[in-house]
Design brief:
The protein is α+β, with helices and mostly antiparallel strands.
């Protein structure tokens, strides 16, 4: 298993085959917005600290405006 020099591809060897995985992840703020939109709810303070511990509180999920 090894990452490409740019960090966007992971090569995994299994026996005689090699699989390439795209690991180009979205920026954290965009990922948070996408997740919040999918679950359509707010995060509790415990969830915020557990899942977004390295993100400022203002990037957390908020209730969807209706």
């Amino acid at each position: 298993m090894t990452f490409s020099p740019d960090g966007h591809t992971l090569a995994v060897s299994a026996g005689t085959s090699v699989e390439l995985w795209n690991v180009d992840l979205p920026d954290p703020a965009r990922a948070i917005r996408d997740i919040c939109g999918a679950i359509d709810t707010t995060l509790t303070p415990l969830e915020q600290s557990r899942y977004l511990h390295d993100q400022p509180a203002e990037t957390g999920c908020r209730a969807a405006e209706r």
